[in-house]
Amino acid sequence: MIDRKPKLLRDISWLRFNYRVLQEAMNPEVPLFDRIKFLAIYSSNLDEFYSIRVANARNLVKLGKKTIKALDFEPKVLLKQIKNIVAGHHKIFSKTLNNEIIPELKRNGIFLLKPDELSELQRAYVDSYFHNQLISFVQPVLLNKNLVKPFLNDAELYLSLHLHEKGKRTGDNTYAIVKIPSDYFPRFIELPNETDRHNLILLDDIVRHALPYLFPGFDIIGSYSMKITRDAELYIDDEYTGDLLEKIRKSLIKRNVGPASRFVYDRSMPEHMLNYLVSMFEIDQEDIIQEGKIHNNFDFFKFPDFDLAHLKYKELDTIDYMPLLEGNLFDAIREKDHLIYAPFHSYEPVIRFFEEAAIDPDVSHIKITQYRVARQSRIMNALMDAVKNGKIVSAFIEVKARFDEEANIRWGEKLEAAGVKVQYSFPGLKVHSKMGMIRRIENGTPMLYSYMSTGNFHEMTAKTYCDFGFFTADPNLTTEVAKVFSFLETVDVPENLFEHLLVGQFNLRKNLTHYIDQEIRNAKKGKASEIILKMNSLEDDQMIQKLYEADQAGVKIKLIIRGINCLIPGVEKVSDHTEAISIVDRYLEHARVFVFNNNNNPTVLISSADWMVRNLSYRIETAFHIYDKDIKKTILDILDIQWADNVKARRLDGVSDSVIKKNDKPAFRSQEEIFKYLREKPVIEKSEKKISPHLNI
């Protein structure tokens, strides 16, 4: 291994990714409602970042100097950097919303009205809405430091009020808070129209309008929005004793009462009021963030579109992958491997895989891993139906899937009640692999069919997340999928380790390193060498240092990284031969693909794993070889299309993420081009015999 080379801090890299999301909201070429959607994505991402990553950094500050010295960064310095970067992003966000989005809404007949802009008809409607629906939910509280302070709920909106007793504009200030019940009511309320335009009002402003009703003995001097983001980490990953499921249930109760990691307030709030609130709620100065008047901007996900389709991206019709939608599904998979790429392809073949298995009299067993799942899921319903039809059904449920713990526990209980054999998380280890397996008796002989994917068994996210799904009956692969399920069920290490799958905790990191070393050897011998990696995050220091080593041996490296990228491309004598791009477009880039040139005989793997410490060292992840020549070519073609993107790709250079210049070339937008490619690509019904070489590493 070469000497340790520099890399970008993970959290700074993540903030740059989120800025790329914000850039889509800033882009006037993006349709209006999609710009609003990107504002919501940016805000939702940032809320999670503060509740997890910033909270973690704040806790690191509290550790002793000896522990902090072992880190490769100074937590206090990092927090200051984060605050400065986010403050700059907030200014851009507010400018985009107020100076571009809202005026553009008006030009399209959509008006977001303030209380003083209401007509008499609208004012009467707002009064009625407040008294008949809201009044029981708003919770007005006068603040007094001598009394028990109220608790501010995580990520919920409040109005903070500056008051004086009626008729008294001098003397002591009085302060109050009012909860805005956006957890019960829509954030954007449509108002009656006297013309053909669309009028909306924020729920916040309905509460503002009604403040005199809530505080009849006071004059309202000012009202300012605010919210707190709390530490949402469960801190259970390293617990190795006790009933893990019960610990998670208890931790979920505590999640919303964790310490504050961010206090967001309206920048027009007077300083005396800010000081009072910071003191009252014991907020650290480092956690104070200015924003505009509107918070919880993730609510823009639900901004009404009034059926104005021309203000949104034109939907791409999904492609029906007919070999798995017509005829006998299992015959088709036994004949050859199949690949779908959702959401360009319909997700229906995945659903059919389980629904057909549930009713097929020859199917004896169904197994599945569950990390995130849709609230309404045909796949989960198929598992329960399968039990009714006499199948033996097993589900491994990862209850440590962050922010999906409660939903996963609920699904686990429902599946158990239906007779599914359910197993839950391991202490200290997450199962992130996405696999399903079916055992079918054919002519008296057991036959295994497997589905493996880069994405979850989630019918809703499959409409917006770009993920590869792979169907196979290749015994070299299915036998090893069965080994993974056996390990999950028994925790017994397989006698013969994996040769065709790369599995976290067993051979994933080791084999990835082997493939990089192979490219290094080929480069030094003057043979063809190249590494292409597509993933969500590249953060693991060992792998980054190994890629630097490959770069300096002459290996050309191409990175397509959606989010975190701690490797710095283009550094002299470190990463001269490395380029990196990030694509942010209408669909979320979620697939993981690893390609090693292997002297012009490419090794292609699809995986559930990003290259992060947690994925490579503390999770059960799978990467699997693509042996089918046609499928391998399809994946390589898709990567080539993405690398050629000059519309939605950004060049990652370690300093600033620059827009890729077209240089008079025609616009080439990879997601649209991939749709055209897959739509026009002929489907090969049969394939040559698969080549499944042993790894022998």
3D structure, described in words:
The protein is built from 19 helices and 28 strands. Mean pLDDT is 89; it is low at 689-697. It starts with 9 loop residues before the first helix and ends in a 17-residue tail after the last helix. The radius of gyration is 27 Å and the shape is globular. A hairpin with a 2-residue loop joins strand 15 and strand 16. The protein has 697 residues and is α/β, with parallel strands linked by helices. The strands form five sheets. The protein has a nine-stranded mixed beta sheet, with helices on both faces. The protein folds into three domains: 10-304, Polyphosphate kinase middle domain (polyphosphate kinase like); 322-496, Endonuclease, Chain A (2-Layer Sandwich); 502-680, Endonuclease, Chain A.
Detail the topology: elements first, then pairings.
Elements: H1 10-26, H2 32-61, H3 65-69, H4 75-107, E1 110-113, H5 120-134, E2 140-142, E3 158-165, E4 174-179, E5 188-190, E6 198-202, H6 203-209, H7 211-214, E7 218-230, H8 244-255, E8 260-266, H9 271-280, E9 288-291, H10 329-335, E10 338-342, H11 348-359, E11 363-370, H12 378-388, E12 392-397, H13 405-418, E13 421-424, E14 430-431, E15 435-442, E16 445-453, E17 465-472, H14 475-490, E18 501-503, H15 508-524, E19 530-535, H16 541-552, E20 556-561, E21 578-583, E22 588-589, E23 592-596, E24 603-607, H17 613-617, E25 619-620, E26 622-625, H18 629-643, E27 649-651, E28 658-659, H19 670-680
Parallel strand pairs: 1-6, 8-9, 11-12, 12-13, 14-25, 17-22, 19-20, 20-21
Antiparallel strand pairs: 2-4, 3-4, 3-7, 5-6, 7-8, 10-17, 11-15, 15-16, 16-17, 18-26, 19-23, 21-27, 23-24, 24-26, 27-28
